[in-house]
Amino acid sequence: MQSVLWAAGGTGFTFLMTSLGAAMVFFFRKKSNVNIQRVFLGFAAGVMIAASVWSLLIPAIEEAEASGMIGWMPAAGGFILGIAFLMLMDNLLPHLHPDSAAPEGPSSTWKRTTLLVLAVTLHNIPEGMAVGLSFALAAQHGNDPAMYAAAMALAIGIGIQNFPEGAAISLPLRQEGVSTGRAFVYGSLSGIVEPIFGILTVLIAGGIQPLMPWLLSFAAGAMLYVVVEELIPEAHLGEHSHVGTLGVMAGFLVMMILDVALG
């Protein structure tokens, strides 16, 4: 039960940061600067890459080896399943990314605003899983303070990159003609899947401990799919991509420092 409360707190923080980012719609009415968008997208990508390695894949390998398994097998298997899950969701759910003209997935009569929210909501799922699993892992190791510190570092890192993510959904919605209040609500709700999936994965992991290496690497594969499929390409649109590249490096550096310093 304690791990569920920790996961609720961690993912609640990431949800709060999404909401704070969405609140930027009350202060900025005009289209945001393209270079700032690239930096934010790159930063989010860097955070997720570092989190996938330090907070998910390495612990997955260590957990597998501690259980007597070949370390790389569940890590690789879960990683592939995470990628397959996001690919499946991308193909089954209609969604629209900001600055894209045509929606992805099956054809739908849903409004552009709904499709925009779905795009961000879909990609928030692995982030919630990652934070929840980190707290579940700490609980399985006898409430190890160092592991709880590492889980909190992950929640902080994901929360930091969720701030611009919330703005990245509310501001385009406002530009689509949605009222300021509704744009804020939709932007905030795009992050609600993080507490939901974070708590669900804690409950699953707590009941079936041998699944932990698979679940950790599953979240890593899903997060890296988002990075490679969406964040990095969008961060490098245009002729000059240095700002996007520097954003990736900064995000990776911040998440690495958080994980090592607090873990």
Give a topology summary:
Blueprint: H1 2-22, H2 34-66, H3 72-92, H4 112-140, H5 145-175, H6 180-189, H7 193-207, H8 212-235, H9 242-262
Pfam families: Zip
Organism: Diplocloster modestus
Protein name: ZIP family metal transporter
Q: Judging from the principal axes of the Cα atoms, what is the shape?
A: globular
- Main sheet, how many strands, which sense, barrel? none
Runs in which pLDDT lies below 50 for 5 or more consecutive residues are none
CA gyration radius, whole angstroms: 18 Å
Q: Helix share of residues?
A: over 70%
Class computed from helices, strands and strand pairing: mainly alpha
What's the tally of helices?
A: 9
Protein name: ZIP family metal transporter
Subcellular location: Cell membrane
InterPro entries: ZIP
Membrane topology: Multi-pass membrane protein
Describe the protein's architecture and organization:
The protein has 263 residues and is mainly α. Helix content is 78%, strand content 0%. The chain has nine helices and no strands. Helix 2 (34-66) runs antiparallel to helix 8. It starts with a helix and ends with a helix. The mean pLDDT is 83.
Give a brief outline of the structure:
The chain is mostly helical.
Labels describing this entry:
mainly alpha; transmembrane; ZIP family metal transporter; 9 helices; globular; zinc; membrane; 78% helix; 263 residues; ZIP
